[in-house]
Amino acid sequence: MGIPQLLPFLESATEPKHISAFRGQKCAIDGYAWLHKASMTCAMEMARGTPTKKFVDFCMKLLTMIRSHGVEPIIVFDGARISAKEGTEEGRQQSRARARKEAGALLAAGERERAMAAYQKAVDIKPEHAHQLQLAMRREGFRFFVAPYEVRVRVRVGLG
């Protein structure tokens, strides 16, 4: 679960650096955020439930690149959903089902580009997807943690 508008808020306090500038350090990565990003490489397969490992390959390529620059990536995955979000998840499931139906209709009508955009909205990143990535990470010696529940981030910002 992200923090709305965090990146724009922090933009003035950041400066671009090549990852090699962090050689010898560790970086924390939100595993589910990466899985969502990686799903763009195979949205149609994932939305349809077709087996694929493209999302795993995408993440592993990035992890290997980070490691090649002497930075140790540590991936953190959310655990179980908190019961307070059940209504939110039901709404998301309905939205994904509508997007999946729209994508199928667009694809049948020959509108592949619009169908792919709809499939991206229809993807549901499941614990099984995280598990596939975790198995690949374990084989390659990447560290990861699974929180008992959704990761809650507290940000303290001083203004003034």
Commentary on this structure:
There is one protein chain. The chain has a 3-stranded parallel β-sheet. 18% of the residues are buried. It is mainly α and 160 residues long. Helix content is 51%, strand content 9%. Helix 2 (31-38) packs across helix 4 (54-68) and helix 4 crosses helix 7. The chain starts with 5 loop residues before the first helix and ends in a 14-residue tail after the last strand. Mean pLDDT is 88; it is low at 153-160. The chain has helices spanning 6-10, 31-38, 43-48, 54-68, 86-108, 112-122, 127-140; strands at 26-30, 72-77, 143-146.
Short description, anyone?
The protein has seven helices and three strands, in the order H-E-H-H-H-E-H-H-H-E. With 160 residues, the chain is mostly helical.
CATH topology, by name, is Rossmann fold
Residues in β-strands, percent:
5-15%
Distance between the termini: 27 Å
Q: What is the count of DSSP helices, taking H or I runs of 4+ residues?
A: 7
Mean pLDDT comes to: 88
Using only C-alpha atoms, the radius of gyration works out to: 18 Å
C-alpha geometry: globular
Notable features of this structure?
disordered C terminus; 160 residues; 3 strands; single chain; Rossmann fold; mainly alpha; 9% strand
